[in-house]
């Protein structure tokens, strides 16, 4: 395969990757309603089970509830009730959580059956980003130890390793 | 997602052990497999150019998550493979990048989810969105995952060194 046809194939595959992202965005791969559907008709979903990924805005230990933003609209907030005490103690505003539960009160409330905390606070986010940066550098260093970039385009093995 | 130290260490261990059975799977191909193990997380480009920005700018719904999937693994591995110059390198490159990307998806599977099911509806895309129960072993920010992954990689590294030195002695 010469350089031109390789370049053409890479462009084609990049279009395919973009195509995947477009088709994925249009596909409904969840059993429960998504935030956009709920926002369009909040009253219609009371009593329905939902699975939401959200960011914690406020924590109310007294009522064992947290307020979260789920989806793209920062104004679209849900009050998550019946949050277990250890979870309430663990999360700060900004935490990333998942909630499974039933919608109530015009889809402003989720009565939680289960809450999973992905990131409790800023330190958790910093840890994952720092570890990922380190892992990325390790992978790149390992690769460039064995391979070099050919000036004419493409990776070729370093002969001495 | 697990962080990349875990993905990279587990992929290194996997391909190093596989290399004990496959002659050509040496350091340089292990390095390619390790790069493959972070390909699905290229959906983190969302942090640079967000889904919402692209959707608003183009008018077409767009989610980077589409490439954090089996379909994305095929396409991204094929792109990576074409960056090698020789045809034999392209074939092996694809194989290792794809295997690395699959290792990433498998490592991400048993995470904890609030509804008790795996996120296979995302990772299997464009295959049907089947969701079996998850064992719920960890969440992204659990530190012990990286500790275990580094320990596994270290043990494999030491065994690999021992095997190489034993083979060298055996040759003499």
Which features would summarize this protein structure in a list?
heterodimer, A: 161 residues, alpha+beta, OB fold (Dihydrolipoamide Acetyltransferase, E2P), two-stranded antiparallel ribbon, B: 172 residues, mainly alpha, 7 helices, globular
From N to C, what is the helix and strand string of chain B?
A: HHHHHHH
Structural class of chain A: alpha+beta
- Across the major sheet of chain A, the strand order is 1-2-3-5-4
- Tertiary shape of chain A: elongated
Query: In one word, what is the shape of chain B?
Result: globular
The counted number of beta strands of chain A is 7
**Rg from Cα of chain B:** 18 Å
State the low-pLDDT regions of chain B, or none: none
Strand-pairing-aware structural class of chain B: mainly alpha
User: How many domain regions of chain A?
Assistant: 3
Largest sheet of chain A: 5 strands, mixed, barrel
CATH architecture type of the largest domain in chain A = Beta Barrel
Helix content of chain A: 25-40%
Q: DSSP helix count of chain A?
A: 4
- Oligomeric state of this protein: heterodimer
Mean pLDDT of chain B: 96
Which protein chains are joined by the largest interface, and how many residues does each one contribute? A-B, 60 and 62 residues
Low-confidence runs of at least 5 consecutive residues of chain A = none
């Amino acid at each position: 395969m010469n350089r031109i046809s390789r370049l053409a194939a890479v462009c084609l595959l990049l279009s395919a990757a973009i195509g995947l992202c477009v088709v994925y965005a249009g596909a409904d791969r969840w059993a429960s309603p998504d935030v956009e559907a709920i926002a369009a008709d909040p009253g219609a979903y009371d009593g329905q089970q939902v699975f939401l990924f959200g960011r914690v805005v406020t924590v109310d230990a007294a009522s064992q509830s947290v307020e979260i933003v789920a989806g793209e609209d920062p104004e679209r907030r849900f009050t998550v009730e019946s949050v277990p005490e250890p979870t309430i103690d663990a999360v700060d505003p900004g935490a990333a959580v998942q909630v499974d539960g039933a919608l109530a009160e015009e889809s402003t409330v989720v009565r939680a059956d289960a809450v999973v905390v992905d990131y409790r606070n800023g330190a958790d986010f910093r840890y994952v980003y720092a570890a990922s940066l380190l892992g990325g550098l390790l992978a790149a260093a390992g690769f460039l130890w064995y391979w070099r970039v050919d000036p004419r385009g493409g990776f070729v093995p370093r002969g001495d390793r | 997602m697990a962080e990349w130290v875990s993905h990279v260490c587990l992929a290194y261990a996997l391909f190093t052990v596989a290399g004990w059975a496959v002659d050509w799977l040496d350091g340089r191909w292990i390095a390619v497999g390790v790069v493959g193990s972070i390909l699905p997380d290229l959906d983190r480009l969302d942090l640079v150019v967000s889904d919402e920005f692209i959707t608003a700018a183009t008018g077409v719904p767009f989610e980077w998550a589409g490439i954090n999937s089996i379909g994305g693994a095929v396409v991204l591995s094929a792109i990576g493979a074409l960056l090698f110059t020789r045809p034999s390198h392209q074939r092996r490159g694809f194989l290792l990048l794809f295997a690395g990307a699959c290792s990433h998806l498998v490592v991400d599977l048993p995470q904890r989810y609030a509804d008790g099911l795996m996120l296979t509806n995302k990772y299997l895309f464009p295959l049907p969105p089947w969701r079996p129960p998850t064992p719920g072993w960890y969440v992204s920010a659990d530190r012990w995952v990286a500790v275990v992954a580094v320990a596994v990689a270290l043990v494999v590294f030491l065994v690999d060194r021992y095997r190489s030195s034993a083979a060298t002695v055996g040759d003499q």
